[in-house]
């Protein structure tokens, strides 16, 4: 590596930088702050929105925007402003709305305008898990819910500011709807499992140019980095890790993630990501 090169370190949150209780440990925050103070470029890339990211990052001297919404936008923790937002085309949004309605797949629809996320519903009444998801976030200052108490669809006036469709579903339902969504132009669907266990499928849809990989590469250009080191643990981290010059998996990562990595470090419970960033140039 050239003495004049600049490295951008990018970490996933859940299962990678964070502890199992969805927090970043005080020790990890201290190590990250030491690294940032020494001039290292650090940010996170996550499927989460600022509604939870803001609290998680408290105590870290973040100087770069975070990649949020799986790459659909950058978000600056200092100003609360979004940038590089990747919207669906209105036609793609309409096609997805039709699919959710036809298959009776209850789904959250996210729009982003004036630095605020507004959340609507399509496809019928929310699942119990979706209801819990909403109730845990309904008082957030970063998003507003527009959900009908009787389960009817609630849609924005126009579909030109849609950034995400998100659903927590019984696994078979998520898998079946995902198969229908595949191949739609301008749409990047994702179906995977996460902290809710194998019986719950997470079904997401983004614009085809909304990826962690694209967002990380754009941020690297913006901050003048010529080398990218990415950390991950799950399937949705693989495109970002493939874009990196050095892909790092934590020990608790899925087998296919560790296989794709250049380096495997300790588990998320040992603050391995923060220690790696502090110790490496």
Please provide a written account of the structure:
The protein is of the alpha/beta class. The chain has two domains: 148 residues, Rossmann fold (3-Layer(aba) Sandwich), CATH 3.40.50.1000; 118 residues, Hypothetical Protein, Haloacid Dehalogenase-like Hydrolase, Chain: A, domain 2. A six-stranded mixed beta sheet has the order 8-7-6-9-11-10. A hairpin with a 2-residue loop joins strand 6 and strand 7. 32% of the residues lie in helices and 25% in strands. The chain has ten helices and 14 strands. The radius of gyration is 19 Å and the shape is globular.
Keywords:
281 residues, 14 strands, Hypothetical Protein, Haloacid Dehalogenase-like Hydrolase, Chain: A, domain 2, alpha/beta, six-stranded mixed beta sheet, Rossmann fold
CATH C-level name of the largest domain: Alpha Beta
Contiguous uncertain segments of 5+ residues: none
Mean pLDDT: 94
Helical content class: 25-40%
Shape: globular
Distance between the ends: 9 Å
Q: CATH superfamily membership of the largest domain, which one?
A: HAD superfamily/HAD-like
In the sheet with the most strands, the strands line up as 8-7-6-9-11-10
Number of helices: 10
Radius of gyration: 19 Å
């Amino acid at each position: 590596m050239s003495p004049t090169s600049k490295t951008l370190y990018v970490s996933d949150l859940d299962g990678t930088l964070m502890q199992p209780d969805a927090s970043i440990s005080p020790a990890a925050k201290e190590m990250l702050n030491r690294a940032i103070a020494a001039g290292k470029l650090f940010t996170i890339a996550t499927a989460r929105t600022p509604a939870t990211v803001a609290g998680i990052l408290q105590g870290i001297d973040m100087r770069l925007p975070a990649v949020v919404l799986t790459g659909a936008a950058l978000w600056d923790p200092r100003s609360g402003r979004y940038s590089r937002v990747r919207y669906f085309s209105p036609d793609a949004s309409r096609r997805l709305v039709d699919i959710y309605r036809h298959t009776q797949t209850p789904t959250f629809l996210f729009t982003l305008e004036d630095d605020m996320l507004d959340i609507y519903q399509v496809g019928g009444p929310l699942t119990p898990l979706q209801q819990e998801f909403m109730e845990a976030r309904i008082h957030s200052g970063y998003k507003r819910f527009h959900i009908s108490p009787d389960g009817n669809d609630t849609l924005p006036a126009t579909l030109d500011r849609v950034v995400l469709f998100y659903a927590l579903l019984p696994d078979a339902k998520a898998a079946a709807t995902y198969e229908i969504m595949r191949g739609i132009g301008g749409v990047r669907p994702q179906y995977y499992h996460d902290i809710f266990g194998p019986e719950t499928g997470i079904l997401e849809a983004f614009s085809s140019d909304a990826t962690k990989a694209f967002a990380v590469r754009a941020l690297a250009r913006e901050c003048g980095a010529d080398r990218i080191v990415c950390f991950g643990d799950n399937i949705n981290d693989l495109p970002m890790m493939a874009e990196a010059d050095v892909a790092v998996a934590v020990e608790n990562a899925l087998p296919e993630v560790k296989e794709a990595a250049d380096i495997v470090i300790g588990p998320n419970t040992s603050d391995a990501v923060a220690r790696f960033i502090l110790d490496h140039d």
